[in-house]
Amino acid sequence: MSKNLYIVRHAKAEQSFSKKDFDRILLDKGIERAQRVSHQLALQMQADSTTLCISSSAIRAYQTAEIFIKAIKYPQIALIKEDQLYEATYLDILKLINQVPPHIHTLFIFGHNPGLSDFIEYVSNESVPLSTSQVVHLILDEGFDFNTLTSNTATLLNTIV
């Protein structure tokens, strides 16, 4: 069975000089777009017992993850908040994904650019400058698991903007 990897950039967030970047929240238009994109995704797939969702612990990424998991019917209590995804490089993201257990068939990563776009290019050799709320669906090449994912071992299937 193919392994599915969904990379999701956080939705549009406020620009604020009065709070830390980590603490920025989603704008109303960011919430609306994330809801629209997540509903499109939900028409294509629903979470099951082999799905895992991991979000950056930054507020805007976690808020985005909450919108998406509601749409795909993934339990909120199972959503993993990961500090390592905030300001992560593509290699940080890969290191995290390489720890995912083999029984997981569908993995969602909610985070930030430029790390996510760089990660997509590293594993698929496809350049995708992610916009806010954009979803990239990757399929791991035959014979690869999340713990063996590396450079050029995934194929970009589609994107939802």
Automatic annotation (TrEMBL):
Pfam assignment, any one: His_Phos_1
Protein name (record): SixA phosphatase family protein
Species this chain originates from: Sphingobacterium anhuiense
